[in-house]
Write a structure and sequence with these properties.
Layout: H1 9-17, E1 21-25, H2 30-36, E2 42-43, H3 44-49, E3 59-63
Parallel strand pairs: 1-2, 1-3
């Protein structure tokens, strides 16, 4: 079962920094990711490449700047 909820920017940063969540920049364009990504975030394209390797229990936080 999946649960979608909003979190504050500070909470997203804390969860990502502590390894609780994976921060994902939700832009389709890798060029846009290069210009606007937050520290520690991965690109949407990278998430897709790692899809089979990421635990289904891992929390994902998607954002767009």
């Amino acid at each position: 079962m999946s649960l979608i909820q909003s979190v504050s920017a500070q909470e997203a940063f804390t969860r990502a920094r502590n390894g609780i969540a994976l921060l994902v920049c939700a832009y389709e364009s890798d060029d846009k990711f290069k210009h606007v990504h937050l520290e520690g975030a991965i690109a949407l394209s990278e998430l897709r490449r790692q899809q089979g390797a990421i635990s289904r229990d891992r929390e994902l936080i998607f954002y767009c700047a």
